[in-house]
Design brief:
Blueprint: H1 16-39, H2 43-68, H3 78-89
Helix pairs in contact: 1-2, 1-3, 2-3
């Protein structure tokens, strides 16, 4: 009798990627609130800035999670949590075209 999970070998939806995305969103809430407080002078302005930042982060979390949950996962650590948090704010960089640099080395 095997004690392995029956879906062993397939990517798990409930893995480090989901935990990283959720933790990144949780850490981004106070960042968005402090930034909105610094940028807005009225309640309406602060609420609009806060809402836009949270929408930005949630869309980033969904986008990055969709791109990474099937990849081989590293165990969640403080370093990976900080990388997730930063990635949630910078997620549009994933869609920038990447130019391949040709090697100048002679074989």
């Amino acid at each position: 009798m095997s004690l392995q999970h029956p879906r062993d070998g397939k990517p798990s939806f409930f893995g480090p990627a989901l935990v990283g995305a959720c933790t990144g969103v949780i850490l981004s809430v106070p960042i968005a609130a402090l930034t909105a407080a610094a940028l807005g002078s009225t309640y309406e302005t602060r609420a609009l800035v806060y809402t836009c930042f949270l929408l930005w982060v949630v869309v980033g979390a969904i986008t990055i999670f969709a791109k990474t949950y099937k990849a081989p996962q590293q165990p969640l650590s403080i370093k990976m949590t900080l990388i997730w948090c930063i990635s949630l704010w910078l997620w549009p960089l994933l869609f920038l075209p990447i130019k391949k640099v040709k090697s100048a080395r002679k074989d």
